[in-house]
Amino acid sequence: MAKDGLTIVKGQLPSINIREKLAAEGKPVCLAFSCGKDSLATWLALRECGVEVVPAYLYYVPGLVFIEDQLKRYEDYFQVKIHQYPHPLLFHSLHSAAFQAPHRVPLLAAVDMPEISYEAQWGLIVEDLGLKGSWVADGVRAGDSIVRRASFVKNGPMKPSSRKVSPIYDWLKGKVMDVITSSKAPLSDDYRVFGRSYDGLDARFSAPLRRNYPADYERILQWYPLVDVDQIRWERLGEPR
């Protein structure tokens, strides 16, 4: 069932009650900010309720210019610094020698790059930001998939044990876009280039990067010399969207 751009999730309070509860606590909320529409709408919704937002972006490759430019655009819009940290996928990819040339594998094996879970990484981030014990917000929505809806029915949008919260979990895509449009917040270039927010190293992202941001693509090759192998695979199966 949907009404006013919202979907009803069985047994759960509307998201406005979640945001009001966060505001009543009077503490900053750390936001997992991806430059995507959902995390952007989450930031706007929290700000509307008077919640102080401390955003953090997780990078797959450090120093990509197109990412830095987008983060600067949002910093200028919100007048808030966006903190940057490595994504757990960065550690996992190096640990597993993903897209690496053969001569690099012994070195990576010798380094024995540690791996870290997504949950543990956010625990370290909030501690580094001096926000230990604060909620970590994301833009996950029940309308994204049946699996996510089922998760919200079972676990709810606020998870005290992990301090994770989804402040717009019951918003539909139309409401997300309406809020972004009415706020005049910039939508990231990711949607023009990738059709979605940048989210990995596979051909869905590396092929458009090669075409649109060649300097950044060269930087990715410094970290993952064989990243174009996935593009060759996609060309055999069909061009990635």
Features:
10% strand; 241 residues; alpha/beta; six-stranded mixed beta sheet
Provide an overview of this structure.
There is one protein chain. The chain is 49% helix and 10% strand. It is an alpha/beta fold and 241 residues long. The strands form two sheets. A six-stranded mixed β-sheet has the order 5-4-3-6-8-7. The protein has a two-stranded antiparallel ribbon with strand order 1-2. Helix 2 (37-48) packs across helix 8, helix 10 packs across helix 11 (214-223) and helix 10 (203-212) packs across helix 12 (228-237). The longest helix has 14 residues, at 65-78.
Proportion of residues in helical segments: 40-55%
Strand segment tally:
8
Cα radius of gyration in angstroms: 19 Å
What composes the largest sheet? 6 strands, mixed
> How far apart lie the N and C ends?
31 Å
> What's the mean pLDDT score?
94
Strand fraction band? 5-15%
- Count of helical regions: 12
Element pattern in H and E: EEHEHEHEHHHEHEEHHHHH
Which strands sit side by side, in order, in the main sheet? Answer: 5-4-3-6-8-7
The coarse silhouette is globular
Contiguous low-pLDDT stretches (5 residues minimum) are none
SSE-based structural type: alpha/beta
